[in-house]
Here is the input.
Amino acid sequence: MLRSIGKRLLELLLFFLLLSFVSFCLLKIVPGDPVRSILRVDDVAVTSEQIEAMRTQLGLDKPLFVQYGLWLKQLVQFNLGDSYLTSRPVFSEFTEKLPYTLLLTAGSLVVMLLISIPLGILSALYRNRWIDQFSRIFSLIGSSVPSFWLGLVLIQFFAVRLQLLPPMGEGSWRHLILPSLTLGLAMSAIYVRLVRSSLIESAGQDFVTSAKARGIHPARVFLFHTFRHSLIPLITIFSESIGSLLGGTVVVEVLFAYPGLGKWIVDAIAARDYPIIQGYTLFMSVFIVSINILVEMSYRWINPEIALKGKIES
Here is the structure.
């Protein structure tokens, strides 16, 4: 057991090192100059001496491997550096933006669950009925519509015409509704069909048939056998789509001018703010890996057979 944990930690360390190095190298070959963005050479007259002085101050005049080594040294000291534009610590800015993105993610997940779970269950229970046909049309349209277009439609209808909700920004829970709907509807269109197919597959398992034959109440069979077993492929697919969820959050945050991590990283990319970009890449990789580990741990609770198999192998 300890050997397995140690091996997993070593793999994670090598993964983070490789990812950080590749992203660091890619940043250096992307067109654009952070020094010119900082000095705003397009708006203010700047001499070449000032540009070189700023480049030396930021350490951008050093070779690539030296720059990466200095960044790693700071990382070991739990220091991700300072933003080129704001001169503030990257970690401080990250902790300021993170709650906004977590709220948006939670809101979109609530919308997705409230739509996909009931509609997927009804589609599985009443196959080929009108509710199943409706879910198919909803999934087809929802998966075909881009998130930014759906967001613009919601802004036009709820904010401009009806004037019920604020179109963008933050300040109260009402600012979360339109972004959450935009991201949640796009996700639910995919997960409705996944819930349906997973439930149908689970309903055909032998242990479900055996539970029905023993006279267990149908509601109990569905909840503790069929539905519980169907969660494993759903959670697996959800963990694999975390990257898509984060990408959708970036688009929605920019569209609604929502001050989360998505808008933060887009602004940093436009300004060539390397410390923020590198820090964001590291944060997201840690987040995605952590989600995958939690998903693997949840398998043992959802399906005790997996936990028993792990004990036998160890």
Remarks:
- Residues 6 and 12 are 10 Å apart (CA to CA).
- Residues 90-125 form the longest helix (36 residues).
